[in-house]
């Protein structure tokens, strides 16, 4: 599935200190494949990965964590943006506010009409009226009445009337005289786009001038959904999209394609047959769903929060002046520790949970290093070059560690200082990795 694919994609990045053009390209190829699998249109998937690639190349690794995580965040942010960024509400400014449903037969219009009425009644304190304008099948009118009874919302219908425009206008009149402040008009759909149906809904649309025209689409229809959306939008210039049947394991890639092609916000999603199965559409949550990697993003955010820019600049200066000492080293360790428990952090990396199941991760991986540094005098910490054999022996005794460990730390520190001087640009950011973490 998509999640496995992305696991694999991000695995490619493991062990790379910097996101380079090559490993970004490899990873994004996988991301693109994953998007295509989730029914995202080919051109959109391609443009998307190109955009992410441009952002990723040359960007310094922001945290001490795997650069792959940064790419995850770039992908997620871009995906969220692509689906509209923020959640968009519906316009309820009319009196009454008229909402027109459009979409193919079976897309979920009647069900969603009921869900929306129930939502507005219970969550927004509105008094909605449902209107049955699917005049071709008696069963359709019945279906809406059943829904209305279920949620305690009145349904307006004229079973003998064969003029959808007239029924809609009469219903609005009825709403005005009876204190309804929202009118939800359910319409007829066909199995495929046809002129007759389009003309009818266009006529209803022109006559009632709704505040909101919503296009309802079954998220499982994949690529076809895009063409349908385009056809409806060309005729109705609708205000928003409703994605239904997002329960089960539909990835919802259609959401991305539709948004990109018609450039209208997705406003609600349907997640089941029950009247309560309605949710406001949040682009970032949908991005999580499509990427299937919820935790990773919070991990990256946590790391970025803890990473102190100011501190980094100070350290960079010190390196430049050859003044980087064990105190700074200690501060870096504290920084890393602030990010949280090592086991938790590792557990949040996709795939790592499995791979590291049998590996013992020390909760306090830095305990010994800290003990050794604490046993140094302030002078030794700021000027490590004065630490001779005699001092080493004293430090080892004081910290309760072996002299070999002190030697090893000194050696690591020495290598690290040299390396940091060499890679000035990225400063002390990569400390943890260099420590062989
Ligand atoms: P309409 O022809 O556009 O009015 O579509 P309906 O509202 O009659 O829905 C068609 C079928 O899809 C019905 O069996 C509904 O119960 C079902 N349905 C609608 N929305 C959802 C949803 O969000 N999830 C699931 N699982 N089924 C849904
Ligand atoms: Mg219907």
UniProtKB/TrEMBL annotation:
To which species is this protein native?
Flavobacterium solisilvae
What InterPro entries does the record point to? AAA+_ATPase, P-loop_NTPase, Signal_recog_part_SRP54_M_sf, Signal_recog_particl_SRP54_hlx, Signal_recog_particle_SRP54_M, SRP, SRP54, SRP54_GTPase_dom
Q: Which Pfam families match?
A: SRP54, SRP54_N, SRP_SPB
Which residues are recorded as binding GTP? 103-110, 186-190, 244-247
State the HAMAP family in the record.
SRP54 (MF_00306)
Q: What is its main location?
A: cytoplasm
Q: Which protein, by its recorded name, is this?
A: Signal recognition particle protein
What Gene3D superfamilies does UniProt report for this protein, alphabetically?
Answer: P-loop containing nucleotide triphosphate hydrolases, Signal recognition particle SRP54, nucleotide-binding domain, Signal recognition particle, SRP54 subunit, M-domain
Keyword rRNA-binding included in the entry's annotation: no
């Amino acid at each position: 599935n998509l999640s496995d694919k992305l696991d694999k994609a991000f695995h490619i990045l493991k062990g790379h200190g910097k996101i380079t053009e090559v490993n970004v390209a490899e990873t994004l190829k996988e991301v693109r494949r994953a998007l295509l699998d989730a029914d995202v249109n080919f051109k959109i998937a391609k443009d998307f990965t190109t955009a992410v690639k441009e952002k990723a190349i040359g960007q310094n690794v922001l945290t001490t964590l795997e650069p792959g995580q940064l790419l995850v965040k770039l992908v997620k942010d871009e995906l969220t943006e692509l689906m509209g960024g923020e959640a968009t509400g519906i316009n309820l400014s009319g009196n009454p506010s008229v909402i027109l449903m459009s979409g193919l037969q079976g897309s979920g219009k009647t069900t969603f009409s009921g869900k929306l009425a129930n939502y507005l009644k219970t969550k927004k304190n509105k008094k909605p009226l449902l209107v049955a304008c699917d005049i071709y099948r008696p069963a359709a009118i019945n279906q809406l009445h059943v829904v209305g009874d279920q949620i305690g919302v009145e349904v307006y219908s004229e079973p003998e009337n064969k003029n959808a425009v007239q029924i809609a206008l009469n219903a609005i009149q009825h709403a005005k005289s009876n204190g309804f402040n929202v009118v939800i008009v359910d319409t007829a759909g066909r199995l495929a786009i046809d002129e007759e149906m389009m003309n009818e809904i266009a006529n209803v649309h022109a006559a009632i001038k709704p505040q909101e025209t919503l296009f309802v689409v079954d998220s499982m229809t994949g690529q076809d959904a895009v063409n349908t959306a385009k056809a409806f939008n060309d005729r109705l210039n609708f205000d928003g999209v409703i994605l239904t049947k997002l329960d089960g394991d539909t990835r919802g890639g259609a959401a991305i394609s539709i948004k990109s092609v018609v450039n209208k916000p997705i406003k609600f999603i349907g997640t089941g047959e029950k009247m309560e199965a309605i949710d406001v559409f949040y682009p970032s949550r949908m991005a999580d769903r499509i990427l299937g990697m919820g935790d990773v993003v919070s991990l990256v955010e946590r790391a970025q929060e803890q990473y102190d820019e100011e501190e980094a600049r100070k350290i960079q200066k010190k390196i430049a002046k050859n003044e980087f000492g064990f105190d700074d080293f200690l501060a870096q360790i504290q920084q890393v520790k602030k990010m949280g428990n090592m086991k938790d952090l590792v557990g949040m990396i996709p795939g790592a949970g499995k791979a590291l199941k049998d590996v013992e991760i020390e909760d306090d991986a830095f305990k010994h290093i800290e003990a050794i540094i604490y046993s140094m005098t302030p002078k030794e910490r700021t000027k490590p070059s004065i630490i001779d054999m005699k001092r080493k022996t004293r430090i080892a005794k004081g910290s309760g560690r072996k002299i070999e460990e002190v030697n090893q730390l000194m050696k690591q520190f020495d290598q690290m200082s040299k390396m940091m001087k060499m890679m000035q640009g990225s400063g002390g950011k990569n400390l943890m990795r260099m420590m062989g973490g």
